[in-house]
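Subject: sequence -> structure tokens, single chain

Hey, anyone have a minute? Need the predicted structure for the following. Not urgent.
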Amino acid sequence: MLTLAPGVTLWDSGEFLAAIHSLGIPHPPGTPLYVLIGKTWSLIFAPVFGFARSLNLLSAVCTAFACGILTNLIAEWTEDGFAATAAGLTAGLMSTVWLNATETEVYAVAFLFGCMVLWAADRAGRNSDARWALLVAYLAGLSWSLHLIALLVIPSAILLVFSTGDGYFAVPVGRRYVDGRREAHSFAKLLRGSVLVALVGMTCVAFLMIRARHDPAINQGNPSTFGSFLDVLLRRQYDVPPLWPRRAPFYLQVGNVFEYADWQFAKGLAPEAPPSWWRTPFTILYALVGFCGFAMHRNADRRSWRAIALLILVAFVGVVIYLNLKAGPSFGEGLLPTGAPHEARERDYFFFWLFVCWGLWAGYGAVRLSRMLFVPLNLVALLMPFAPALLNWTAVDRRTDPEETRARVDESEMLARVPPSGVFLALGDNDTYPLWYLQQAEGTRRDVTVVTIPLLPAKWYRAELARRYKLLDSASAEKWLGRDSTVALITKRSYDQNRPVLRSPFFALDSSAKKQ
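Reply:
Had a minute. Here:
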């Protein structure tokens, strides 16, 4: 909370804030459960903290509760409450986790739901109780309508459900009666029940189609028909890569994750991307302590150790293979050919489960090591779980980050420069989403129409411009004419309506469009 963003931040935050305020639909796959949770939360807390700050606070609270659940699990698994507390704190102090916890984004809520799945799965296995297993399935269904990243815990959850406290594998049984009898459950019966309750949880996605038919202010994909509904769920608007060919060499994709790992414990010492003599030695030190935690957890409880190790494997190798990302913007120089494509921004947040697990083992291992070492090394080890609070602080404090200030100040000034009833041609997320937030949540300059150029190839978006603002005709809404021709047509129809057009300072047309 001390480093919480006071308002809107860059990238998706502005879109989510605008969508939550208007009960709308953000970019595919729509994250309907997040919008509903955020709307409910804002109705309670926005009158006290303000709309944007209250939604940022939601991320902080969800992250805190998620780390609390992990602390509870580690304490029960290892019977070491102090080491478990250190583990939970260190996991939450990873720079990627911390940054997710201080802005309006879906990942903090997904983190909480994933931890709830693990918590219920642990009880299903420990108590051999099928009701907890059914809760796992229901939470998994809800998580699917929240964000797929919450489902990375499912393989570990399955392992916990079907392994008892003694480490043996068994099918959870049903409820226990007063006389001590237990209701028998076959695997087939448990599977049928799990599928049923998971489907109940998944029905939350119906919100997309229901709400889209009211055409809210933020209505990305417009899933008002079954076909467009499937398009949103399957993210067909985007260039979803296949598993092969790789968009960057596999070794570089793995190396990119190691770059992100180097930012987790001491980013405040050297915020820039390349390895640093100030930051990277701390990364190596925490890696060694994490390996100690790995071994000590294994000795304390094999069942839960397998679950965390499996989560690391899925969150690292599985995510690298599945996402097939291009090299990050700060990675691959000298290894990729000149002009090779890079991601639009750093994607470290996709790997937050990996960093969470590493933080758990580093914090747990440090406390256990402190009991084995002599003064002053034991004091150094004892402080290690808490040190990232200071080592990361300046790099994650969103109150003073100049880039975050740009989202709150520069975009407001940009919107103010648009003439009355004007049309603003925006280049991308960072000169679109903050404007959506200002218009929808703060009611600023709603007379301005923001046209997002990268969205023009999407048929639903062209139809929206034609339907709401008459900036395109039916023919150009139906058929893609190319970027420059479509922009020229929007400009012409804007002037026909006596609406001035202002372009983003980052936007440029080629010479043919300028002639038009």
